[in-house]
Amino acid sequence: MKKLVTAALVLAMTVGCLAGCSGGSGTSEEKNANAFYIGGIGPTTGAAAIYGNAAKNGAQIAIDEINEAGGINGAQIEYRFEDDQNDAEKSVNAYNTLKDWGMQILYGTVTTAPCIAVADMTAQDNMLQITPSASSTDVIENKTNVFQVCFTDPNQGTASAQYIDEHNLATKIGIIYDSSDPYSSGIEENFVKEAESRGLQVVSEEAFTADSKTDFQTQLQKAQDAGADLIFLPIYYQEASIILQQASNMGYAPTFFGVDGMDGILTVENFDTSLAEGVMLLTPFAADAQDDATVSFVTKYEEQYGETPNQFAADGYDAIYAIKAALEQAGATPDMSASDICDAMKTAMTQINVQGLTGDEGGLKWSETGEVNKSPKAVVIENGVYVGMDSEEEAAAGTEAAPEADTAAQE
User: In this protein, which residues make up the domain named Leucine-binding protein (predicted)?
Assistant: First the structure.
């Protein structure tokens, strides 16, 4: 009798343990058979958390809308987002966790260096990956399963030089960039090429690294001594906030022009946002736009998260709708394996056109290389908010007087 009781207890404990373990791993027994499993990765804590949380939240709004509207061909979306703290090793660990959970499609990663590491794994696993904001061409190089919603680094550098030239924003340009970061150095390289081809005068190119990103007085002094009236900053908002503060302390007041990594500077803790007045940047999204889609998204985001969405939130929103469109185009179903879904979506991604928040009237389209085709927007920070420069110029002076409007925007 004792042996029978003992055996029964062991069996009960074993079953209980298995049940408890399955709750953490997301085994097939607990999966929703009529749902697509989308996993997300990005920094929700740490120095780059502004990016990760925005991308996470923007995607959540899109997923809620899709599920409430009946899903994707009747199938719901299950969504789980993992924090990688902008660290490549942690991002790889997060990817493995999501695979155990049952992920069929990866949304992420949000930042470039972790995305490069994870993209190698999704390529090996043949899992469809769409990143809202990792912009290096290394993310998509030699891969057929990875797609970007953001501009690539070369495009950002080229477009920035074009905009500065076409709007007569500077006569002498200084550059401060992070040579240890593929995002920053990639944009800088292409900016210089385009600037030279247009006859723009780059008078200083000063680098820093991840080990020296708290003191920029030397770089600023060299730019000032060279007479730079515009500083191009292809960097993230944390370092940009320090540069603006130190430039102010020096009494140096050039025009500052950034790219998408600058987005987030208005939310840096203890940063005097008045120092960002007049800062310009290229971005795919302007929260003050008055089209119905943007107004609806901004309203929902502010109600749910208590702040105005940045471009990373908008890119994340568009990424989810791109996934939806590609799944529908491919005729994919939740019972398919991640690899089969990937095979079906690779072709579908090149066939869809998404009328998203971050494109123009032509929508968002993708090439076989994974690169997105869409147009950037220029914004300037005025009174602590982003204001679309092109719409402001047209309203103030008409299209024939753009240079005067640009001067007003700088002031």
Answer: 37-360
Counting as low any pLDDT under 70, the low residues of the chain are 1-29, 390-411
pLDDT the model gives residue 273: 94
Scanning 32-71, the segments in alpha helix (DSSP H) are: 49-68
Annotate 366-398 with b (16+ C-beta within 10 A) or e (fewer).
beebbbbebebbbbbbbeeebbbbbbbbeeebe
If phi over 0 gives left and psi between -120 and 50 gives alpha, with beta otherwise, what is residue 168?
A: left
Nearest residue to 75 (alpha-carbon basis) of 301, 356, 352, 341 = 341
**pLDDT at 360 (0 to 100):** 77
* Count of beta carbons in the 10 Å neighbourhood of residue 58: 29
Contacts of 285 (CB under 8 A, 6+ apart): 294, 309, 310, 311, 314, 315, 357, 358, 377
CA 25 to chain centre: 28
pTM of the model: 0.76
Bridge partners (DSSP) of residue 202 are 173
User: What structural domains and CATH numbers belong to the chain?
Assistant: 33-150+291-373 (3.40.50.2300), 154-283+377-410 (3.40.50.2300)
pLDDT for residue 401: 35
- Paired with 230 in beta bridges are 173, 255
Pairing of strands 172-178, 35-42: unpaired
pLDDT recorded at residue 390: 61
Strand partners, 66: none
Strand ranges inside 71-185, DSSP E: 76-83, 105-108, 128-131, 146-148, 172-178
Q: What span, in angstroms and rounded, lies between the C-alpha atoms of 134 and 186?
A: 12
> Residue 30: what pLDDT?
76
**Do the beta carbons of residue 232 and residue 175 sit within 8 Å?**
yes
Residues with Cβ < 8 Å from 174, sequence gap 6 or more? 202, 203, 204, 205, 206, 222, 223, 226, 228, 230, 231, 232, 254
Distance CA 329, CA 348 (A): 6
How far apart CA 44 and CA 54 sit, in angstroms, is: 9
